[in-house]
Amino acid sequence: MQRHDHSPGTGLDEADRKRLAAALAGAREARVYRRLEALLLVAEGHSMAEAARRCRVNRSSVHRWLMQYKAEHGLASKKILLANGRGFSIRLWREKQGAL
Hints:
Radius of gyration: 13 Å
Low-confidence stretches: 3-7
Number of strands: 0
């Protein structure tokens, strides 16, 4: 499969690639590892379909994870990646953080 040096159209840059690679190295749960691996493949220039095939997930899952990742960078994106896959609410997470 063809691999590109950049990620046109995904909005991911070199900083995102480094952040995802570092998070992947520290991932302990299979579901978190799978999400990070798929996002890293996209950040490295692979198509979402190729990332989905390699990670054995549906292409729509990779697309959803990418949109979630792009919606919130930093600490919030880490929380999204750790969500249980049943619709983690960013608003709810922010409310909990504000209560602390």
